Structures are given as C-alpha cells and as structure tokens.
Amino acid sequence: MSLLSNIFKRNNNNTNKFNEAFFKFIGSMGSSYDLNAKTYIEKGFNINPIVYSVISQMATKTSSVPYTIKKIEDEKQKQKLSKLLKATKHELTPQQEVKRLMLETKAYTESDYTMPLVMPNPLQTWNEFLELYKTLIKITGNVYIYKLMPSEGRNEGTPLALYLLPSHLMEIVLKKDADMISVESPIEGYQLIEGNVGLTFTADEITHIKYPNPNFDLNGSHLYGFAPFRALLKNIESSNLALDLNIKTMKNGGAFGLIHSKGNAPLGEKQAMSFKDKLKQMDADPDKLAKIAAVSAEVGFIRLSLTTDELKLFEYLNFDQKQICNALGWSDKLLNNDSAKYGDNIKEHRKQVVIDNIIPDLELFATAFNNDILPLFKNYKGTCLYFEYSELPEMQEDMKKMVDWIIPSVKEGLFSRKVAGTFMKLPESDNKLMDEITVSTDILTLEQALDDFPTVDSSPI
Predict the structure, then answer these.
(1) CB of 119 within 8 A of CB of 126?
(2) Rounded to the nearest 5°, which phi and psi values hold at 110?
(3) What's the pLDDT at 446?
(4) How far is residue 230's CA from residue 142's CA, in Å, rounded to a whole number?
(5) Higher pLDDT, 287 or 213
(6) 313 vs 32: CA distance, rounded Å
(7) Which of 145, 186, 253, 342 has the smallest set of CB atoms within 10 Å of its CB?
(8) What kind and span of H or E run contains 209?
(9) pTM recorded for the entire structure
(10) Is 324 in contact with 335 (CB distance < 8 Å)?
C-alpha cells in the first residue's frame, strides 16, 4: 500500500470542501499549460530533461551539506554570528572567519546533538528528505511538513515521524469569514486532495515553508508560496515543443512535401498513388539497390516543411536552458560539467550557486525546523539545527592565502596558536601552552617578552 493510501486510510470519508484552485491567479500568461503545481510537476520536472537536470543537481548538492544539532550557550553571541553570516552571505575573509570561529565558540557549547529522529520517517533518510524538500520548494514554492504526533499519552505532542506532503496536491483551508489583514492567522487547516478524496490536517500538524508571493487577493492566494516554475512556464512549454518537433522530424526522416510532374502532362491519380506506393516500398526495403528507381517522366518536388536545421531547434533549446537556469538561480555552465572549456571559472560557478541557491533554501528550512519542530522534542530545548556550509569544498579558503595571513598574526601576538590551528582546521592539541599568546619566532609568551625588555633607570647620575 502506498504512503498516500496509508494517509488517506486515516480519514477516507473526507471530500473536497475547498473548491479553490491551488493557485487562484486572475488573468492568464498566454500559455496553453495550466498555471498550477500539477502542471509544473507533470510537464516540467517529469518530462523536461533541462528542468530535471537543474533540479536534481540542486537536490544532490543540498543533501551534501553537513549538519548538526547545537546547544545554544549564549543567545546574544548567536545573534551576532547570524548577523555576520547574513551580511557576508557566508563568504568570509580570513579576518571574518576568525571572528566567526570566536562567535561560534561563545554561542554554542562544544558538544553536539544528533538529530531527534534517526530517520524522519520509515521511508526516507534525512538526505532523501532534504533532497525532496529542495525539489518541492524549487518547483512549487511550497513545502508542507506533516508532523505525526500522538494526541494523548506520555509522548503527546512529540513527533514520531515527519513527512513531506506532495505540495502540488495541497490546499489551504481558510477560517469562516477569515480576515486577510489581521493579527490572527486566517488559516483553519490544510487539505491533501487527490481526485475526489481529501484528507484534512489541522494547522498545528503542518509546518508550511514557502517563498514570498506578491500576488494578493482576499481569497488567500498570497498564503501560498510563489512557484518559480510559474515564471518559467513558457520556457518549459517551448523546450518541450522543440523536443517534440525534433522527434517528429527524426521519425519523418526529413522534410515532407508534394511530388508533381514538370512536363505538360500532369500526373494522374492512379500514377500518383502508384508512385507513392513505390516510394513506400523503397523506404521499407533495407537493400541499397532498392533505393534506386526509374521514372518515364520528369518530376519535381515541392517541400512544404522546414528542416531541423532551418527550425533552429537547438538554438531555442539553448535559450530556454539559460532562462530556466537564470530563474532558478543556477549556472548553465554546470549542466555539462565542461571543466576543460571554462577552466578554473567552473569553481567560481559552483561556489556562486552554493551562496545564492543552496544556502538560502537551507536557511529557510533551518528557521522553520528550529521554530516549529525542534522545540516539540523534550530533550532538545535550547538547541538548533546548524548547517556547516564552511565544510563544503566550494567554501574552503585557499590554504596558501590562509597561511600567509595567519602566521604573521600569530607572530605579532594577535591570537594563540590554538586559534590559528582551529582556523586552519588542524587537529586540536592537548598542550595547554597552545593557548598562550606568543610573539616573535622565539615562541615566548607575551609576559616573557615584556620581561626581556631592559628597564630604564630613572635615578640621577
């Protein structure tokens, strides 16, 4: 039995009481594809190779980011750390990296926690969960996390499992006479709709993560996140059409048209049909000599269609590919992984998509997880989910640049060798002397260095 069937089994008497569409936008973009999340999945992700390639690269990279649960030691230092990372977009200079390490040391305790659930649910690992999260948020602009919690007993209110519901099948149910501009939430709950069957969730059971949406109306359209694929719908349709036309042209074997007589006597109907049948036989016969035929009259051919080259299908596909990548915040240079062509610049492209694409969406997830999910676990009070972006290869500082800056700083007594080792991600030493501030190449403590200076005798001669 499928997951969806199991979920519907919980309440199979529900019907669709919320008759609004997934998105209720006024007007049309002129596309023949419907402006809804089902179309984005079925016409975009499922059958478009460009869309699938871009989204799958994003999802794979998202699941590769290391994460941990940290115990908060100092909330003020944590806020300072958050401001630093937000202001720099996690792209730190060596000086800022030292500041980050110092703030992180003060903000969190040394011991880390494991995730509250070994697996979010019996069907997914955390990596699979994060990959699907990335896929749904980029396609539909919405993610709905269902928290399966006992309603009574010792574990009341503590999640037993977390499920990502299909965003393209979700609808928001509004309260009766809901006010869209009020201090009170207008959301009564959520419904998962499949066909004529609907499953209702309370507002407390769902954690809704979404992109900002400027489309406002009193029916609650702005309560849904804006789907990036809505802006890409024409490009998705265009690239699908180009692929379909290319297949038709390949099957046809070339251009089609009309055969006619070039003389005074036109081809009769019987002659024309006989000539057509002969062409079919020649095309079906694999023998080379079967492709040669003779006619007793001069004939001509009028082409009625354009060839693949004349249609410039691949130029249109390249244009659509760039538009899709631009709108989704990805680099089209990464699709073919052409390192030989772009050289070291490919590293910059990889780093840029981490900064502009991967990190913002994971921070959305971390904020929702820390505010709405983690506090529900009794032993996780005062903790937070922390993604360690600095561990990614794309975010590593050049080692030579690091060493050139750190060694003079140690010699000048700006910070200890322990801090320097931490900054360069070296194994931590048990030697307590590593905590000492030292100066010069003699490795003297600051106190020893001051003692070595000669004193000035102020007594009169």
Answers:
(1) yes
(2) -70, -35
(3) 64
(4) 13
(5) 213
(6) 20
(7) 253
(8) strand 206-210
(9) 0.76
(10) no
